Automatic annotation (TrEMBL):
Name of the protein described by the UniProt record: Iron complex outermembrane recepter protein
Domain TonB-dependent receptor-like beta-barrel: 261-678
Keywords: Cell outer membrane, Membrane, Signal, TonB box, Transmembrane, Transmembrane beta strand, Transport
One cellular-component annotation, GO: cell outer membrane
InterPro entries: Beta-barrel_TonB, Beta-barrel_TonB_sf, Plug_dom, Plug_dom_sf, TonB-dep_rcpt-like
Domain (TonB-dependent receptor plug): residue spans on this chain: 60-167
Signal peptide: 1-35
A GO term for molecular function: siderophore uptake transmembrane transporter activity
Protein location: Cell outer membrane
Length: 721
């Protein structure tokens, strides 16, 4: 390589602003000998599965993929999947509270992963009822994860609606790689108290892993008013993963998972008619916590007919149960039928009546009649000095999903591969509060992907997903990509794709109405009654649409131990649903749009057998018709990591994370991890300490999210035998 440097520099002057990967490409393509040496393949190329469902080298993938491997996951010292996502370029990570993480690719207004698909071993954990992923409740321990593949870009072609902006695919360790016993405990500041235990064993034709784990922490210390923040996490998880080898061609994999726990929520209810009660209304409760229970099971039968042809059938069932109950108090007027009718007709006018203001011009006769009756009831409340009424309120919701999928992979020739499949999904949701009962939806889909290796350098790929959603109608999403392989481990790509997101059940069918039970004292002789406020959706919403264009480069420089991915992109989302529902009403529409353009870079450099450096950076320029869609979109974000294996079982990692503005708040943090591995006979003991130091002086995402200090520390001990 030294002999090549002088002639290369003479031919190509390197500008300081030229990206490193482009500089390497320019050098190589201007000198044949340089290309031969620089792009030599000296080691095996990793395989990516998430992009198209086909195993492909990163250089051949029709898009950008970030791979978080087992070493990186462990070296990060992270305790949750959202924290790991800080290592993904362009991923925006924030928090509503200590147990409500927010993860979005490139960002938008919503706090949940509404426009991303999240999978665990191919099973979607995206909840369709309220369009969310409960990150604190994902029923998998980080210790069971082998790797996480993140497809950065639209991929409804492979995974259907809601993979609008990306796919996070969590792939767990094979039971065959989990033989033996592992025990781990973690303790630290802010109430961190985690534990993990697993047992893996095998027999002649199979392997099994059973793991139990728990997650505990106290969340943020206080809010912006100095009050204790009720946002702790308490979770217990169960996982069973099994592989049966039926014969040389067939395998049967099945999994069971369960999670139960409590996510604290601050008590936010404020009485509307506090001033009508002498002495005011005391809080009814201080506990509106969410009791969360998740259950999941899946089974996959794989039939490898021959080296060119394989088939699998997978079935999965999941159930999410969220119980959130509390006691609320208000004046008896809050349950007035007349007030409820007036509110449904005109919430703005109703508020004027509350403030004893004159009725405006344009008030209808019916509104005026109801307003007069409400005023009389308010006066009667004051005159008779009726006591406050208290009762039980809930936001309980249950969701269930059934999935059945068939996939066929066939190598037609050495240069032509075809993947095709079909699936059926049944979604069910039940909530008296959110939907006034039960709703369901049926989704049918067929998909295909064709990979044509025209010659050793050119690959043409195309795919499409045809999906029929009973509630939203039919959609067809295509993708077309051209990859130019300089070598099998270096490729340029040009990708065009379209994607959709179907409205969730709440957007189309919201009927938010609180029934208060066990009233004391009773109201009109009834022990239960509906609160006057009611929020309903308008229905008839269309799908959101995205068009994405991408140019990129992916390369593995084996002689240098360096892998690079560079992406230039433009994404346009139309027919966006950006409105949030409030107590004043809900009028969702497809009237909004948003555009992203920018560049992303990730580099992973294994300098030696002991040292690894990893860099990510994203520049995202956004425009939107709705200002709230820009809240969770940082223009500049990234990470820098150095991991090292020292002598005598010592290892360390230093990772910097930064984002210039998430909800107008800067985020910078430096994480240090130091670990020592000790051999105890046939067992291994690892002691690790993690120190997280905030370098900024901001609240985390929202003004309420505050800690007493900017430093977090926890210590873990893991024993394997």
């Amino acid at each position: 390589m030294r002999a090549l440097l002088p002639p290369m520099i003479a031919v190509v002057p390197l500008h300081p602003s030229l990206p490193f990967s482009f500089a390497l490409l320019a050098l190589a393509t201007t000198h044949p000998a340089a290309a031969e040496d620089l792009f030599a393949d000296g080691e095996s190329v990793p395989q990516i599965l998430t992009a198209t469902r086909l195993k492909q080298s990163p250089a051949a993938v029709p898009g950008s993929v970030t791979l978080l491997d087992r070493q990186l996951i462990e070296s990060s010292g992270a305790r949750s999947v959202p924290e790991l996502m800080r290592l993904v370029p362009g991923m925006m990570v924030g928090y509503l509270s200590g147990n409500q993480g927010m993860v979005n690719y490139h960002g938008s207004s919503v706090s949940e992963a509404r426009r991303m698909q999240v999978l665990i071993d191919g099973r979607s954990v995206y909840r369709a009822g309220l369009a969310t992923v409960d990150w604190a409740d994902i029923p998998v321990a980080l210790e069971d994860i082998d790797r996480i593949e993140v497809f950065r870009g639209p991929n409804t072609v492979s995974y259907g609606a809601n993979a609008l902006m990306g796919v996070i695919n969590i792939i767990t360790r094979s039971p065959s790689e989990s033989i033996g016993t592992r025990l781990k405990v973690t303790r630290g500041k802010r109430g961190v108290n985690d534990w993990y235990a697993s047992q893996g064993f095998n027999w002649q034709d199979g392997d099994m892993r059973l793991s139990l784990s728990g997650l505990r922490d106290d969340g943020f210390d206080h809010d912006d008013e100095g009050n204790d923040f009720r946002d702790s996490t308490r979770a217990n998880r169960f996982n069973l993963s099994t592989t049966h080898r039926l014969d040389a061609q067939q395998t049967l994999d099945w999994q069971l998972a369960a999670k139960e726990g409590t996510n604290q929520r601050p008590y936010n209810y404020e009485p509307v008619f506090d001033r009508l009660i002498p002495g005011g209304i005391a809080p009814g409760d201080n506990n509106s916590d969410v009791v969360a229970r998740d259950y999941a099971g899946s089974m996959r039968w794989t039939f490898d007919m021959n080296p060119r042809h394989s088939l699998y059938v997978q079935g999965a069932a999941q159930h999410w149960d969220r119980n959130q109950e509390w006691v609320a108090c208000d004046a008896a007027l809050a349950f007035s039928p007349q007030l409820a009718e007036l509110w449904s007709l005109n919430p703005v006018l109703t508020k004027r009546v509350f403030r004893l203001r004159p009725l405006p011009a344009g008030t209808t006769p019916r509104e005026a009649e109801l307003a007069q009756q409400v005023l009389q009831q308010m006066q009667e409340q004051v005159t008779t000095q009726q006591p406050a009424v208290c009762g039980d309120v809930n936001q309980n919701i249950r969701e269930t999903r059934y999935d059945l999928e068939l996939q066929d992979t066939y190598s037609v020739t050495d240069s032509l591969r075809l993947l095709s499949g079909a699936g059926y999904r049944r979604e069910e949701v039940a909530s008296e509060t959110y939907f006034g009962g039960k709703l369901n939806n049926d989704i049918l889909r067929t998909f295909a992907h064709l990979e044509w290796t025209i010659d050793p350098h050119w690959i043409l790929q195309g795919g499409a997903m045809l999906e029929n959603d009973r509630n939203s109608g039919e959609s067809l999403t295509p993708r077309l990509a051209v990859n130019y392989l300089i070598t099998p481990s270096h490729g340029l790509r040009a990708v065009y794709s379209e994607a959709v997101r179907t409205p969730d059940m709440a957007e189309n069918n919201l009927d938010l109405r609180y029934e208060v039970s066990n009233l004391s004292p009773s109201v009109n002789g009834q022990n239960s009654a509906y609160y006057f406020s009611r929020v309903t959706g308008t229905g008839g919403l269309k799908e959101e649409h995205m068009r994405s264009r991408e140019l990129g480069y992916n390369g593995l420089f084996s002689n240098l131990g360096l892998s690079i991915d560079l992406k230039l992109f433009r994404e346009d989302v139309s027919d966006m649903i950006s409105e949030a529902f409030t107590s004043d009403g809900y009028t969702p529409s497809n009237a909004n749009s948003m555009s992203f353009q920018g560049a992303e870079l990730q580099a992973d450099w294994r300098l030696s057998a002991s040292d690894r450096v990893r860099l990510t950076y994203a520049y995202v320029d956004q425009t939107a018709t709705e200002d709230r869609d820009l809240r969770l979109s940082a223009r500049n974000s990234g990470s820098a990591a150095w991991m090292r294996e020292w002598a005598h079982g010592w290892s360390s990692s230093v990772i910097y994370y930064g984002a210039d503005a998430l909800n107008e708040r800067r985020f910078e943090r430096l994480d240090l991890r130091l670990a020592k591995r000790v051999r105890l006979g046939s067992a291994n003991l690892q002691i690790a300490g993690v120190l997280q130091q905030r370098l900024d002086d901001e609240a985390l995402t929202w003004k309420e999210n505050l800690y007493d200090d900017r430093q977090q520390f926890y210590l873990s001990a893991e024993l394997g035998f």
